[in-house]
Specification:
By secondary structure, the chain is of the alpha/beta class. The protein has helices spanning 9-15, 19-34, 46-50, 87-100, 111-115, 140-152, 165-168, 200-210, and strands at residues 37-38, 58-62, 118-122, 127-128, 159-163, 180-184. A four-stranded parallel β-sheet has the order 3-2-5-6.
């Protein structure tokens, strides 16, 4: 059984007993034993490990893990400490600087965000090396939808940052009027810069402060 030692354990105990997850587990066992899969097996649930449910004040939803060596570590858009930031993450850090005046960090590890209430959740939690979306449609979407619905049930205000069409597809599951949904183009260079100017970092903190919650510390140093 998966145990993280925080309040996500009850959710994991319920969800990992369901038939869809048992099938997903068989698939992952085969994949990890026969191919290079990212992130490392022990990092799959890092979004939950580093951001307990009670601490979630914001959710940033990604697509699936990075496909290159030394990058993915179970946190959406983040790379392992010391790794160079990929293009999408560089655009996120540029918007962070332009919006909140926060200096761009020397690397692309967003672990500090995760430890400070920002759940960095990918829609699909694993991927084969060099093959984006290779684990889509295997059951992770059901799992992460359930996780999003669990966050949606929180009474405390939460900001959902949905960048791109994939992320925005979960908006229908965010029904609690206590929460705020912010949408923008995906930060990928393919979006033609339409992500820039969304000001989601300052808007998130304005909402949290207005609703009596602690704002997010978006700094990375």
């Amino acid at each position: 059984m998966i145990k993280l030692g925080n309040d996500w354990d009850e959710f994991l105990d319920e969800e990992t007993r369901k038939p869809y997850y048992l099938e997903l587990r068989k698939f992952l066992k085969s994949e990890y034993s026969s191919r290079r899969i990212y992130p490392p097996m022990n990092d799959i649930f890092n979004a939950m490990r580093h951001t307990p449910l009670a601490n979630v004040r914001a959710v940033v939803l990604g697509q699936d893990p990075y496909i290159n060596p030394g990058e993915a570590h179970g946190l959406a858009f983040s790379v392992q400490p010391g790794a160079k930031a990929p293009p999408s993450l560089r655009n996120i850090l540029k918007e962070l600087h332009d919006d909140a005046g926060i200096p761009e960090p020397p690397n692309g590890c967003l672990l500090k965000w995760a430890d400070n209430g920002v759940m960095l959740l990918n829609r699909v939690l694993t991927v084969a090396a060099g093959a984006s979306r290779s684990h889509a449609g295997r059951g992770w979407e059901t799992f992460t939808r359930a996780a999003i619905e669990r966050v949606n049930a929180k009474e405390a205000p939460v900001v959902f940052l949905l960048w791109g069409k994939d992320a925005q597809g979960v908006a229908e599951y965010i029904t609690n009027p206590r929460h705020l949904v912010l949408t923008a183009a995906h930060p990928s260079p393919l979006a033609g810069g339409r992500f820039f100017g969304c000001r989601h970092f300052s808007k998130a903190n304005e909402f949290l402060t207005r609703n009596g919650a602690e704002p997010i510390d978006w700094s990375l140093e």
